[in-house]
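Q: Got a minute? One more chain.
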Amino acid sequence: MNIEQANAEAVERMMEARPVLVGLGKALDVIPGMHQNLLLHAGPPITWERASGPMRGAITGALIFEGKARNEAEAEALVRSGEIRLEPCHHHQAVGPMAGVICPSMSVYILENKTHGNRTFSNLNEGYGKVLRYGAYSEEVLAKLHWMEEVMAPVLADAIEASGGLDIRALLAEALQMGDEGHNRNKAGSILYTARLAPFIAKVAPNPGVAADVLKFLGDNALSVLNPVMAACKAMADAAHGVEGSTIVTTMARNGTDFGIRVSGLGDRWFTAPVATPKGLYFPGFTAEDASGDIGDSTITETAGIGGFAMAAAPAIVTFVSGTPKDAINTTLEMYEITTAEHKYFTIPALDFRGTPTGIDIRKVVEKGITPRVNTGIAHKDAGVGQIGAGLVRPPMAMFEEALIAFAEQYRI
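A: Always. Here it is, folded:
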């Protein structure tokens, strides 16, 4: 068995994947295995008993949105009874930011990897602050979700179809040249995304007022493109999964309680350890004492070679997650130590257009004692509050060590 050759194959597949946004559809209709009594969530598997505050809040909000519960007590009773099942987004070719909850009647982006043929999915982005993905479920939060579903989603679906599809790999490559890193800073990417859809939104919207409202919502939200970007990164990472003898990480995800990874050559087994609490900048009135543990599927961006790994492309990110522009550059430089390749298509102007560090190798993580760098939003620890800041976090080393031991046992090395 040649591990280097297997890793080269896995990372080549990851880089050559070309995810294109091809449509928008109801989760129930398009996500494999979705059914009326299933909620998908971020991270590795979790139960209600072990779920964090924001995860419980998002589950509650989703069940209220679906008309299955009126409050947290009813939501909890449904989940505990087994009537409502909880399963990771990653088990259904999907990803979701923060709590990542996707319910059957939500619309989701459909991404198709034109190189390898696999499809992936993600929900729509609500913007910053008090939103479902951060565990909030007030009337205001639910009203926005209903508007997104009833007004915006049909327009977006028709606009994406009329556009013929958006190449998200190409969009990301351009956004990195414009000061984004693809995880927490998506200002350029969201502008590009909105601009490319705008003519089609204007064409397919039922009237100018709806077109204006949809364009304003997308334009005001600097995270509009995050969800299709996450699904694109999922498509890239999935293309690299299942390569015999590969030590490349193809999933990193958190549910607010556990951080989990999966490795290309180790099948669909999760390796988990308790999450850390991000360190960063807090909104006025909040401190680290209010913070939930690390949460969300958005670490799929780092898995695919952007996000925290591309911070050198986005020095302004430090105004949101803390640190200095030099820290952003050093973060990227450190990640070259634990990766296999430099990305062919994602390059960094500040590093003389060097490709982003791509393909996390569990051997290098353990050998060098360096865990991946992640930048992330911070949720309040209690259900119903929402986002309280943003910062930086590292995954626990224990799960990389466990994965490496499992690899050695499986391949008898």
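A: The longest strand covers residues 339-348.
Q: Perfect, thanks.
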